[in-house]
């Protein structure tokens, strides 16, 4: 099942033609190995490679009768080969072919996703540096907390996407295994050399032990890793959607010429791309649940995983490929409003510097409990209206007796609050630490 939003490279990878070609390659490589072992006549593999043609429509016709996709595939290919066709699938069971080919497809799909993640990392790095010193308010529980910079927010996402790249790389390594060990994994009718040969040619490692199938914990871990990436994209999308609200308007999703936001309201510019990312991430988590359920199969195998995987494996990889591409494009074209960020930072009349005042009072010798009570009383009063928190702090005699105007000016300045930004960027590898 290939979703309609699939990008060209991934669409081709998961097409029926591509899948059958991978099956055919496994069959031909197995014949090459059998030739080396002297079990089939010399030249058989080359003859099959030269003559074999894959015809998905014909496979469908045969499958409609035999009700078995691999038998239909083997029969169709054998029709195009001639006498050598009788050796195709020699000593193998269906999932020797299906699972080994599937691993190679998943490996290549994850390779595409690795490239997607790296492209997004590069954009985040560039944006983080651009907005490294752009102050904005940090929010906890949706409420103004303390100053940050927009670059720091981007650096946070940059670091998480680097971890996601590591997760996908690990999943790619974990899934890059094949098996040609027969109906219950005992090699009763296939020499282990055949498995080693085929896997080496495909760039896979033989599974150390298998039943009729490669164990589905690998596939579950793979799809779960993709869902974690989707979760990061959803987190970024939700954060940006919050910042794009009319009352906040610190960022805005790009709006193309000729684009329309509403059939009824001409003024609308909606974050539709970010909302699509949010929805796609929900699907990704659903795929992960299905993949986890697939790990439970009866004894040496049953077929309950097959119908699920025909959907979730192409869908999860193609959906994440598309969503990463979409999010990277949104970031590239994001409209950022630094003046609005600064305006919102100052919206509460200095309340966001309450901890600075608290710590200054503690440093002056006041007990922390007393300092907290004093600063909180001024802050809570300021929430209800003028004078502002800053004005109340400067006018309070208990504070004036301990802190000079210059000390208070430092408390209400951005320099101290943002003094460690470069340190964080250096630790993230976004800034090269200067030689000293």
Summarize the structure.
The chain is mainly alpha-helical and 436 residues long.
Sum up the structure in keywords.
single chain; 436 residues; mainly alpha; Fumarase C, Chain B, domain 1; Fumarase C, Chain A, domain 2; Ribonucleotide Reductase Protein R1, domain 1; two-stranded antiparallel sheet; two-stranded parallel ribbon; 5% strand; elongated
Structure report:
- The structure is a single chain.
- The chain is built from 19 helices and six strands.
- By secondary structure, the protein is mostly helical.
- It has three domains: 80 residues, Fumarase C, Chain B, domain 1, CATH 1.10.275; 250 residues, Fumarase C, Chain A, domain 2; 61 residues, Fumarase/aspartase (C-terminal domain) (Ribonucleotide Reductase Protein R1, domain 1).
- A hairpin with a 2-residue loop joins strand 1 and strand 2.
